[in-house]
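Table S7 (text form). Paired inputs.
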Amino acid sequence: MHDPISDLLTRIRNAIRAGHSKVDVSYSKIKVEIVRILREEGYINNYKTTGEGVKKTIRIYIRYAQSSESAIQCLQRGSRPGKRVYVGVNQIPRPLNGLGICILSTSQGILTGKEAYQKQIGGELLCIIY
């Protein structure tokens, strides 16, 4: 697997399209941080890590409204291994005029665009979610 973040986003996107309530993805520290932000922002219900060593996985519980519509409408990858996208403080995107979030990899860790703007730091744009 060349791009684990794209794999995470694609698995979530496919689970939503299939109507699944949960999805399992392989474990990595950056994936856990992205999923933690999704939970804090209310896009997923919860997550938990299971297994040990090489077989460690993250189980993500997807949030649906009563009309069986997912809380996540769009998952877009920002930076790719072939084309890195870096943004400064003034170029941090605001999806849907602030209703969506963007996730950045900064020198202070994985942050949302709003947190990075408050701390006045830019970074690599990982993904945009709304």
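Next pair, protein 2 of 2.
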Amino acid sequence: MARPPIRKWFVLRTFSGHEKKVKEYLESEVERLGYDDKLTQVVIPTETVFEMRAGKKRTREKTSFPGYILLEAIVDPYLREVINGAPSTIGFLGANGEPVPLRPDEVNRILGMMDEDKGEVMEIPFKEGDAVKVVDGPFNTFTGFVEEVYPDKMKVRVMVSIFGRKTPLELDYLQVEHEG
């Protein structure tokens, strides 16, 4: 008696920024055609990051690998036709367009990155030497240069000139913005 085929993880290349559109299309098309048993998961690897926008701290989902999505599937000619015919897809990652499955350790690493509860990652908006302007607090409108960045505290040390004397200020990311 033949053993049933085993689902494996594959990487599908898409146009960058179209990952969600491709995922939604594939899920609806697979359901419509009754291929749910062949394509069981479509995953866009993402991570949550902080960013500063208009002086406010926001969180957003950032795609870990822009232009790539993961599929858990049994790839047969019928499913392959559906996948390759999806809008905004480039094709499977592999040699000569032939889908090559990911190794289990690769899948575990990628999916583990998404599941890790390491807290949210802050995109560091400043680096040493950046010219900045203070936009909040008692030193509002002062300008200076970033001397040091403290990503764990989400603060920067800025050197400003007060009465002709260089003075270090420790400020929150929200209290400064890039000059210019």
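The longest strand covers residues 46-53.
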